[in-house]
């Protein structure tokens, strides 16, 4: 038998909710990217790429679910689980800063992007070279998927905190600032974007802190709602 589901309801929901987040983010991102390229809207194209990379944060549990269903079993090296999810932080943050800088400090965009790139490269170096010290990845209980948590105080944890703060400043406050200067549908567009990233910050934090269970699954459903808000705000701009 090739396909088997040797998982508890909690383990299955862990994998399915993560897969839904990845799927919706990819679908929305690809649609917007296609529309943006077709219309030559570069800012929207970068927004679509950002949405895709953000959805890939949940690639770890998605891949683990697939491996278990195929009968292969969990990751032989559980650190790969961590890398699969967090390797997308740098590109997602970089493209988010591209949009945020355009909203808040367009004259300083180059400087902001250079700083973002430097921080992102250092983040990736810590991720790939010091994975074992950055995460606590115990063997999964029977019937559950692999789960991981940051080691508090590790540089990766600090970098993620910095990234989330900059997301709030440049994307949430930047979108609100742009909304106040706009009117009609464009104003709604920016409000959607501000709400999306306002919700994304606690969702990202809680997803990294909570163990698999009902609350975590609700959080991931909210992440699908965030993906929909991003899609809605970007889709409106290309219509």
Morphology call: globular
Oligomer: single chain
CATH homologous superfamily label: Rhodopsin 7-helix transmembrane proteins
Physical arrangement of strands within the biggest beta sheet: 1-2
Mean pLDDT: 88
What structural category arises from helix and sheet content?
Answer: mainly alpha
How much of the residues is beta strand, in percent?
under 5%
Largest sheet: 2 strands, antiparallel
The N- and C-terminal alpha carbons lie at a distance of 48 Å
* Rg estimate, integer Å: 18 Å
CATH class: Mainly Alpha
What is the CATH architecture assignment?
A: Up-down Bundle
Number of helices: 10
What helical percentage do the residues reach?
over 70%
Q: What order do the SSEs take from the amino end to the carboxyl end, as H and E?
A: HHHHHHHEEHHH
- Kindly report the CATH topology: Rhopdopsin 7-helix transmembrane proteins
Low-confidence stretches: none
Number of domains: 1
Q: Count of DSSP E strands?
A: 2
Please describe the structure with a list of short key phrases separated by commas or semicolons.
Rhopdopsin 7-helix transmembrane proteins, globular, single chain, two-stranded antiparallel ribbon
């Amino acid at each position: 038998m090739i396909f088997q589901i040797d998982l508890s309801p909690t383990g299955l929901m862990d994998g399915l909710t993560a897969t839904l987040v990845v799927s919706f983010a990819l679908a929305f991102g690809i649609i917007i990217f296609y529309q943006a390229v077709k219309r030559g809207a570069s800012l929207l194209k970068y927004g679509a790429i950002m949405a895709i990379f953000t959805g890939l944060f949940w690639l770890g549990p998605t891949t683990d679910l697939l491996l278990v269903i195929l009968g292969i079993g969990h990751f032989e090296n559980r650190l790969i689980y961590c890398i699969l999810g967090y390797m997308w932080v740098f590109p997602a943050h970089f493209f988010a800063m591209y949009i945020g800088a355009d909203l808040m400090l367009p004259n300083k965009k180059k400087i902001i992007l250079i700083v973002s790139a430097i921080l992102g490269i250092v983040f990736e170096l810590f991720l790939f070279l010091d994975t074992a010290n950055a995460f606590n990845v115990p063997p999964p209980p029977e019937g559950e998927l692999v789960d991981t948590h940051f080691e508090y105080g590790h540089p990766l944890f600090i970098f993620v905190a910095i990234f989330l703060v900059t997301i709030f400043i440049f994307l949430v406050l930047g979108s609100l600032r742009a909304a106040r200067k706009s009117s009609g549908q464009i104003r709604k567009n920016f409000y959607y974007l501000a709400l999306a990233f306002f919700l994304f910050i606690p969702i990202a934090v809680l997803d990294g802190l909570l163990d698999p269970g009902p609350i975590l699954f609700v959080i991931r459903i909210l992440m699908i709602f965030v993906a929909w808000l991003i899609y809605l705000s970007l889709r409106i701009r290309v219509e």
